[in-house]
Amino acid sequence: MVNVLFFAHLKDVVGKEEVSVEGNEWNVARLKEKIAADYGLEGLESVMTAVNEEFADDETILSEGDTIAFIPPVSGG
């Protein structure tokens, strides 16, 4: 299992700050596809991803117990 953290509007759409997913040995892209399908999230391709507090790309391989954070772009003025 891996833990997935959601921030900003992603947390509102999912209705939770954190979920656990069976994603061991997956890459980040596959995890994004699963999360998008399970929770109806759109636009995950544009979010920043961190794995264990280090920025990661879509090809990063996940390991048991990893914490993945999805951080949407911030806007403001």
TrEMBL record:
Biological or metabolic pathway of the protein: Cofactor biosynthesis; molybdopterin biosynthesis
Protein keywords: Molybdenum cofactor biosynthesis, Nucleotide-binding
GO biological process: Mo-molybdopterin cofactor biosynthetic process
Entry's Gene Ontology cellular component terms: molybdopterin adenylyltransferase complex
InterPro entries named in the record: Beta-grasp_dom_sf, MOCS2A, Mopterin_synth/thiamin_S_b, ThiS/MoaD-like
Alphabetized CDD domains for the sequence: Ubl_MoaD (cd00754)
One Pfam family it belongs to: ThiS
Superkingdom of this protein's organism: Bacteria
One GO molecular-function entry: nucleotide binding
Family matches, as NCBIfam families: moaD
Subunit structure as annotated in this protein's UniProt entry: Heterotetramer of 2 MoaD subunits and 2 MoaE subunits. Forms a stable heterotetrameric complex of 2 MoaD and 2 MoeB during adenylation of MoaD by MoeB. During catalysis MoaD shuttles between the two heterotetrameric complexes.
Function: Involved in sulfur transfer in the conversion of molybdopterin precursor Z to molybdopterin.
Stated family: Belongs to the MoaD family.
Protein name per the record: Molybdopterin synthase sulfur carrier subunit
